[in-house]
Amino acid sequence: MITLYSYPGLFGLEDNNPFGLKVFAFLKLSGLPFEHRHVIDTSVAPRGQLPYLVDDDATIGDSDSIVAHLKRRYALTLDDPLTPLQHDLDLLVRRTLDDLYWVMSYSRWRDDRYWPLFRAALLAALPDADPDVLEHARQYNFERYRYQGIGRYEPDDAYARGIGDLQAVTNLLADGPFMFGATPASIDAAVYGFVANILFYDIDTPLKRFVVAQARLVEHCHAMRERMGQSRSP
User: Fold this and answer.
1) Phi, psi (5° rounding) for residue 202?
2) Closest CA to 97 of 198, 166, 154
3) Hey, which residues does 37 pair with through a beta bridge?
């Protein structure tokens, strides 16, 4: 039995964290049956991070490691048609999305213009959430941003970095709707996890304004949702 542990959903998405939504999308694309459990406490998670996956006797953390485990254990063929160059592009896009993560997180927890709206959305979605715990989490994130580096950026410079990441992904989508043509690969689950958490994010950040204006990114989200058996929008 496969069980995915990830953060709670928000704005109609199954996880408000892009890495958890990435794994959710990969599982849906692969057709593997699984149970999805939403948690906040990361104390028992590998490396103290979500998402993580329990697959019978195996517990795997890190979204890339989870995808690799599932592909290996269940002989999934999603990426078999990819050329060596496409496998390299898959890696480069995932690393670009790792960079984008910090800007997305900054827009939610750090930017004083959007934090009150994000905080209100979390409290509405999670009635048992403690406002003091959220404030503690915010201060903890400030430290993470400072050590990672994005916390030393002025807001406009931070968003320019994230928009640069999004522009590169947009350019690679070409005629799509998926990264490598008409059929989704595992990289499309990663792109969806990030872009959907911007496109369907009900707060008008610079990242959202950019994504909404990119027809390729919007169509990718809609096409992914259709492949997962969902409506085009949450």
Assistant:
1) -85, 40
2) 166
3) 5
- Buried/exposed 39-65: b ≥16 CB within 10 Å, e otherwise: eeeeeebeeeebbbbbbeeeebbbbee
- Per residue in 16-60, pLDDT tens? 999 999 999 999 999 999 999 999 888 888 988 999 999 999 999
Nearest to 202 by CA among 48, 6, 12: 12
Please name the residue ranges forming H helices in the chain: 18-30, 63-73, 84-105, 115-125, 131-148, 155-173, 186-199, 206-212, 215-227
Bridging pattern class, strands 52-55 and 58-61: antiparallel
- Token readout for 131 is 């406002």
Angle, alpha carbons 105-109-110 (nearest 5°): 95
Cross-strand bridge partners of residue 54: 3, 59
pTM of the entire predicted model: 0.96
Residue range 84-227, CATH number:
1.20.1050
What topology does CATH give the domain 2-73? Glutaredoxin (3.40.30)
